[in-house]
Amino acid sequence: MRIERLQTRIIVFFVVLLALVQVAAFWFVNAANSKNAHAKIEEELNVGQRVFARLLDQNADKLKLSARVLAADFAFREAIATHDTGTIASVLSNHGARIGADAMVFVDLQGNVVSDTLRPGGTSRKFEYPALLKANKNDATASMEVLDGRGFQLVAVPVLAPLPIGWVVMGFAVDDSLARDLRTLTELEVSFAMEAPQRPAFPWHMLASTLALPEQKALLAGLPAGADDTQRLVINLSGVDHQALMIPLDDNSNARIVAVLHRSLDSALAAFERLRNTLFVLAVLSIALSIVGSVAVARNITRPLETLASAASRIEQGDYVEPVRIERSDEIGVLASSLNHMRGGIADREKRILKLAYEDPLTDLANRSRFANSLEQAIEEARAGGFSLTVLVMDLDRFKYVNDSLGHGVGDHVLREVSARLLATVQSAACVARLGGDEFAILVRHATGGEDITANARRIIDALEAPILFEGQPLDVGASIGIAKFPEHGGDAQTLVRCADIAMYAAKRNKTGYAVYEAHYDTSQQEHLSLLSELRRAVERNELRLYYQPKVSLHSSNVSAVEALIRWEHPTRGLVSPALFIPFAEQTGYIKLLTRWVLREAVRQCGEWLREGMRLTVSVNISARDLMNRDLPDQVAALLHEHGVTPSLLCIEITESGFMEDPANAQKVLDRLAELGVKLSIDDYGTGYSSLSYVMRLPVQELKIDRSFISHMATDPELSTIVRSTIDLGHNLGLKVVAEGVEDLAALKMLRSLGCDDAQGFFMSKPLAPRALIAWMRANDNTFDCPNTATVQKLR
Amino acid sequence: MRTTGGHVATLLTMLGATAAAGDFTVELRDAAGKPLANAVVYVTAKTAASAPAAPPHARASIDQIDKEFVPRVSIVQAGTEIQFPNSDNIRHSIYSFSPAKTFTTKLYSGREAAPVLFDRSGLVVLGCNIHDQMVAWLYVVDTPWFAKSGADGTATIRALPPGDYRLTADSPEDQLAATESDVKIDAAPSRQLVTLKAGA
Amino acid sequence: MIVRRALSSALLALVASVSFAAAPPDVAPAGSLYARLGGTPKVTAFVNRTIDTVATDPRTNQSFDKVSLQHVKDMLVEQICSLTGGGCTYTGDTMRDVHAGHHISNAEFFGLVEVLRDSMRAQDVPLSARNELLEILAPMKRDVVKL
Questions:
Q1: Which end of chain B is more exposed for a tag (fewer CB within 10 A), N or C?
Q2: Which residue in B89, B109, B130 is closest to C67 by CB distance?
Q3: Looking at the complex, does the CB of residue C56 fall below 8 Å from at least one CB of chain A?
Q4: Does the complex come out with an ipTM higher than 0.90?
Q5: Could you read off the pLDDT of C55-105 as tens digits, one per residue?
Q6: pTM of the predicted model as reported, rounded to 2 decimal places
Q7: Which of residues 65-124 of C touch A (CB under 8 A)?
Q8: Homologous superfamily (CATH) for C22-143
Q9: Does B129 touch chain C (CB under 8 A)?
Q10: B63 with B134, same domain?
Q11: Considering only alpha carbons, which residue of chain B is nearest residue A81?
Q12: Distances from the Cα of A595 to the Cα of A608, A620, A647, A700, B80, angstroms
């Protein structure tokens, strides 16, 4: 459709253009032609006039010559002198006959006609035109006059013998034959007319003409009266316009003789008409030709364009194989070859894009989307073909550590090496992909269902056993692999990957290397997810509580501090252990909000107790995340101020590993908290990766030994040695040492003997609700005796 | 007392001989008073046969010099032969159509042509066939009493016997009309002014 | 008187007839050189042109001073007509008489001959006829040229 229009457009454009050009040319040429024709007629008339004048002059010259010859003739002169009229007459007529003069007259000096061949005989009369007889001796006069009602071209010559004795007047008649002769030479119609003013009604009288009688009358009717010089006229004769020149010949008071030269405009314009018709035909022909030509040109252009357009649409539809077949050397050929190059370029680029789209640039393995596509396709084929699939998801252990501590260059090398080993190990895999980061996925098809789906996983783990060398340095990288199977574990790609993922996390948690998905893995995951959203709501709905576990001083048995521990009273689940939601909160960053809540509540509670007369230091656990928060000191300050709590009554506990996550920033925050006057405590000491030099620099006041050392220290001498060393270390650093997780009296006693400052644990009390704590405090008078021997007071 | 001489005089007078002829000078003027040269004047006696005839073999000459007649104007008595000497080296073919003498004569170089007798009175206008401008006026008169005026316009007729005459004057070169008048001549020399007016 | 008149009439008639007989014919006799020269019209034309030319050319015109050219032309036509079998009778004088006293030089003579030749050529007179005429006129040189 598009092409058709272009073709039509070309044709229409060219035809219209050419038609316009033709019309314009025709019009201009026609106008010029017409102008030319009229100019030509003008010119013809002018030329005719000049020829006419010349002919008349020639006639006159002939007459003059002959008259002079005659006037010189001796015999003639003698005859005149001797008044021999007979001889005179015969000489005149002979001479006249010789040159064809129609009138020969001899006039004497008095102006009397002596002899006249035109009107011989008759009475003596005067010559009608005495004005003619005025020439001097050597000259002759010529004139156009009327004699006897007919026009004559007259010449008068004096006869000398030796004095003038008279005049010879010779004349050619102005008759139709003269007019016809003149017409032959001038190619104009010639008429001689005489105007006789005596008849004003119809003054003109025709003397001679080349026209037929009726037209003569019409001509005479068209002549203006009384003209003195040459006039241009248009006279209509028999319905045809004639362009005419009216030329006065000799002015005479009696009668005016004029010559009218004219030409019918028709005949003059005939040639012009012919030319115009020819031009018209030419114009029509050329328009027709141009139609044909432009159709041909348009086809010549639009056909290959059609081909190109269809080639382009093929390319658009993704067919990059078929080249455009147009062999021309002109612009269209150039376009076709460009299109071909483009096609090739597009094909190349598509390959590269596909590569980018579906390949992981670092490892050249498939990427996540390709894996997903392959998996989907495999699922369909497996479903149709009745075979099973295995999806393995692999996560490298400790990769983050490698990347952070050794740099991304090493990390990339590790990934590449891992990829290579993967490919080498699972050659039969349908797809090996890097899902991102340090996560990989493998898709394996099984022809039959009974294969050992864990075999691959084992082989991979074995393959990764050997350390990866980087510049000669060995790096140990392990992996956790989760396995999910189609159709057992899921019917679509997303489910299978998720199951494998869950299995992988399970393997990681349990440090089993690989794990096949089991349904129960999922629920906790799912549970966790829903828990998180519920947790959000928990904050809003005040489902969170702070319980406080008292810390007993081993020196004084006083209880002057408590640790605030978060508890969640879920409406349906009941009391939810923090172990179930704190890790999640930490991972998701929700911990910040929880911490804020905890701080607020703890400070508030502390303030409340203070006003009630109970002075208790409240310890609050915060996470490493919270330590990154530079606004934390200000928030704490604001809370303290808000609730009127002395900063030293607040103690902030951070785990050993929490400090170490970002030591520099942690230092800053801790310094500011210390400046506030808030106490700081290292929690779970002994289980994290701290360095002593760092610990020395921290502005902490307290060190809490992790429960793992405390709970069996009574029975394990190694543990008690560690505890003892830790207490010494803490004291040497100037820190107060607190033991967590005291569960029996023996431990308590031992701790006391080792010099530990405070103790905290179920043996003394479990974490209590605020009112319960107060009750316990009152009941124990704010002390807890550490009995030496038998009496054990267990309070609940 | 009548002497013989006196008788002879009377006889002569009776015979018509002039007894005491005087000069008759005519002053020829045009209307403006300008003296007319080359004009002719002649008198014819009113009484018939009182004029003596021209002597036989009277000769006059009209020469052709430099393609002109010289003199252009001449007056002779009838019966005079006119010689045309042709002082030009080239030939002339002179002619006249005048009724008084119609003739043609070829005057060749180096050859003497026969003189032509002019025996009739009248004005003879001479021309040359070869040289159109050549023109001469020859007055042939029946009287011996004639004269041609000089540059001063005076023409003197010598020894004109007294008597009644008819005087004719003409100045052909000036295209003035000839005039005639009666004049009475006596013995003494006399003078007359004749004015010629323009005419055909 | 009557006799005289009759005599003069007869004389005149004779002269007239002689004049007429002398006049160049309207139709040249067939086969004559006069006819081949073009007859009266052409001969008149080239004679006219010749005389007009030599009478105005300073090299040749002094012998035409005051001369009636028409007379010369007429006589020349008559002479040529009579010499070339045109049937005319030449009524003019002999060449010697005509040119006596004119002191025509060779240069003038040849000048006229040249002009005559040119004029004939201008009238498209054929070469042979031209040469024939010139041959006829050539012997006149000794009568014409007299220093």
A1: N
A2: B130
A3: no
A4: no
A5: 998 888 888 888 888 889 988 999 999 999 988 888 888 888 888 888 888
A6: 0.50
A7: 68, 70-71, 73-74
A8: Globins (1.10.490.10)
A9: yes
A10: yes
A11: B97
A12: 19, 9, 17, 19, 186
